Amino acid sequence: MAGRARAIGMRLAQTVPVLIGVVIISFILTRALPGDPAVYFAGAMADEQSIQQVREALGLDKPLVAQFFLYVGDLAQGDLGRSISTGQPVLTDLAARLPASLELTLSALLLSCLIAIPLGVLAAVRQGSWIDHLCRVLVTAGVSLPTFFTGILLVYIFYYLLGWAPSPLGRLDFIYFEPPRVTGFYLIDSLLAGDLETFGATLRQLTLPTITLALFTLAPIARMTRAAMLQALSSDYIRTARAAGLSRGKILFGYGLRNALLPVVTTLGMVFSFVLGANVLVEKVFAWPGIGSYAVEALVASDYAAVQGFVLAMALLFVTLNLIIDLSYALIDPRIGFDTK
Amino acid sequence: MHTNRRNFLKLSAGAGGVAITPFAWATKAAAQGKDTMVVASGQTINSLDLHRTGTNRASYQVAINCYDRLVGFGSRQLPTGEMSYDYDTIVPELAESWTISDDGMVFTFTLNPDATFTDGSAVTAADVKWSFDRAVSVGGFPSTQMRAGGFFRPDQFEAVDDRTFVLRLDYPSKLSLPNLAVPVPFIINSAVAIANATEADPWATEYLHTTTAGSGAYTVSRWDQGQQIVYDRNDAWVGGPLPEIRRVIMREVPNNSTRRALIERGDVQVSFDIPDRDASELVGTVDVFSTPIENCIHCACLNTRFEPFQDPEVRKAIAHAIPYEAIFQSAAYGRGAPMWGGPAEITDTAWPRPFPYATDMDKAREHLEASSFASGFPVQMSISLDLASWMEPTALLIQESLGQLGITTTVERIPGANWRTVALVDKSLDFHLENFGGWLNTPDYYFFWAYQRDRLFNSSNYDNEEVHELTEQTLHMSMDDPEWAPMVQRMFQIVIDDLPRIPLYQPALNVAVNGASGYEFWFHRQLDPRRMTGV
Predict the structure, then answer these.
(1) Following DSSP, what letter does each residue of A89-128 receive, concatenated?
(2) Nearest CA in chain A to B200
(3) Is pLDDT above 90 for B324?
């Protein structure tokens, strides 16, 4: 156990240079973006004098090196600066938007795992059967339908035509107010507050965007489960288990699935990190106040602090995610030890 | 004001008289009573303070709804039947009356004695003085806009006593009084602001960024940046007739298809600033208002630095070769007003006005053959990616049409963050599209920004001595002056002949309304809910 704690400590220490690199690179890259934020935020009517005033107000008149050390100094005090395009401190923005994105992404991943893993297993076990074909159709549809298309289609059918879904107006309909903030996840916060009505409303708002994202993320997970299962089922230890007369369930889930899980978890991690930053289109369609649209708008406006804050938050998130995935490897397959690394 | 869940409930109980139990009140029926209006908009509000650096256009609505100005604009019916604000009628807002000295240089305003800020304190001339000082001192856009009316320095403003405010101009100008009715010179509760100012921030921009301190028709009871802003009516408002709508909820919905579904289903009463295409397709389903934006023209600009464009015959050839109708239909879906095929003779001072050119390829060829570039030339046409929705189809149609004359164009797409620098500051784009619109609705104001030498929106580098002089003379002159109309008509004549900017069409501001009435167009292109009514 002590060995594992030390290994985790080592892993955490290894992330420090990564984060330093991220800070430097994001600073340089934002400055390399075309466009001058002072000009952008001074507005179209501004003259030279007012642009200069804005530039000074934003601290952009100082040399780059000085700007960098000011930024790092603020960062050390936990101050990510202020986004000009939203007018809020970047930390406030991230605290408001990251849980929104995480809530959506995690629900989508949960839903897609619930569908994709059993589907992949069944497709592998009954290769060539109708369920295998269903799996193939779903996977093809999932990857070939762009998320904004699925999103708009679902809104059209379930909100516009049938009226089953609530108005696609973000995390909560305007008649409800957000639950007292504890985690930032409305589902959890509303339960903590004992407010079942808001919980229900949150769940209803989540349904369509979750299905949209789940359809998209389902494909790689189902595909990977099927392939990994096929490989596992054709291996020697399964044959041995069969020969030893173990029960079908034990063979399938105890030996087959458990060994097939490694690549699935890896894929899951990749899909998660990809989707979290890349679900801009879903966020736009459902007016979801998430991190993806925040980053894109900040980029368009050359909003340095917001872009840097986003990149840093994502880097931290990925580092944590990778750590969790590595740890879960060891849980799934005890042969993968931490101490050996 | 800091609003959390608790005091919001208290507020709404006070304002709307809805049930007070925490969750029971949140029923659809209670919140969507006829005095609540829900608006979907694609824009995001980034500050409650218009004077702050970086405040975007959508945020101007806070200055309109939550603050008063000394004066406001009246309303009028447009020939199309739609309602609009009326540039020519100035009505009292905080000022109950005003006098202008005979030389037009001293304005004396008497404040309404009943006007109070939302904290209950009376609005005094000192508040007006502090707010005007702030607007001319903070720099950036507010100060630029103040200068347009002739307001440059704090020493021009004087609070004589609690109810009398005096404004002194350096020169008389017809733009001064209307410029007091634009969103910028709004009146702030100076006592509250000063109490929250710091040495580094003497104008309390940090405090007013998240809190309003005004006397306007509404107060902000909730602002979730990136999601919504909720206004509640200020029942003590005296700046005009009390609005019918008690609560306005502005929701940000970035996706156009989603907004369209919302308005068609009637879950929102207003979908603000919708694309031309949605507007044309929604006609007949819901109420659609497409008001041509005053003093705004979408233009194709010919830079005089580019050699072929120095030849007047080339410019005329291009003006005759542009497929105006096709552009109007495919870029604007027919929303707005045509700016081509106008009469050759100038008898009025209407602006924007259709220029006397129309698509005629034979005439275009004649003009090109008469020029020194008879066989055509290559040119780069630049568009802004931020405005691609109309610029892209327009550019492609012009490209195709000019191709028939032997003028080969390549379309260059410039990122929005760069556009202003290359197009307006460096003025380095040979052939490009542009969309300037002025808040103050006079032709000379448009000329000041777009045709006068070295002005920001004169992206064609147009330099005509006579136009420059005439603009200088007419800009501040009263429109009743007998000399004004002939001078303006002369300006029209010259730019119609010189063609540094070829007008394509006047764009429209499209608004879809489903279950509300009383919509009015405003030059600032924001929704003014004060005169709207419920179902």
Answers:
(1) BHHHHHHHHHHHHHHHHHHHHHHHHHHHHHHHHHHHHTTT
(2) A57
(3) yes
Q: Could B28 and A49 be called an inter-chain contact, meaning their C-beta atoms sit closer than 8 Å?
A: no
**Chain B environment of A177 (Cβ under 8 Å):** 5, 8, 26
pLDDT digits (tens, 9 = 90+) for B124-180: 999 999 999 999 998 878 888 999 999 999 999 999 999 999 999 999 999 999 999
Query: How far is the alpha carbon of A246 from chain B, nearest alpha carbon, in Å?
Result: 55
Q: Do B140 and A302 touch (CB under 8 A)?
A: no
Q: Measured at the alpha carbon of residue B125, what is the angle toward residues B120 and B129, in degrees to the nearest 5? A: 115
Closest by CA to B467, choosing from B442, B444, B439, is: B444
Look up the pTM and report it: 0.84
Both tokens of A53, joined, read 């005033």
Burial of B299 (0-12, 13-18, 19+ CB in 10 A): buried
Residues of A in contact with B145 (CB under 8 A): 45
Query: What is the CB neighbour count within 10 angstroms for residue B77?
Result: 10
How far away is chain B from the Cα of A289, in angstroms, using its nearest Cα?
Answer: 6
Asked if the Cβ–Cβ distance from A152 to B249 is below 8 Å, we say no
Catalogue the E-assigned strands of B145-266. Answer: 157-161, 164-168, 218-224, 228-233, 247-252
Q: What is the C-alpha separation between B236 and B243, in angstroms, rounded?
A: 11
- pLDDT tens per residue, range B222-280: 898 888 999 999 999 999 899 999 999 999 998 898 899 999 999 899 999 999 999 99
Farthest CA pair distance, chain A = 85
Question: Within 10 A of B86 (CB to CB), how many other CB atoms are there?
Answer: 16
Q: What is the ipTM of this complex?
A: 0.79
Cα of B37 to nearest chain A Cα, Å? 11
Residue A303 gets the label, from left (phi > 0), alpha (psi -120 to 50) or beta, of beta
d(CA B180, CA B266): 37
- pLDDT at position B431 is 95
Instruction: Mutation target for B interface from A53, A60, A82, A167: give the one with most B CBs within 10 A.
Output: A167
CB A313 within 8 A of CB A98: yes
Residue of B nearest to A156 (CA): B261
pLDDT tens sequence across B66-114? 999 999 999 999 988 889 999 999 999 999 999 999 999 999 999 999 9
Cβ atoms of residues B225 and B210 within 8 Å = no
User: How many whole angstroms from its chain centre is CA B461?
Assistant: 24
- For residues B39-63, give the mean pLDDT: 90
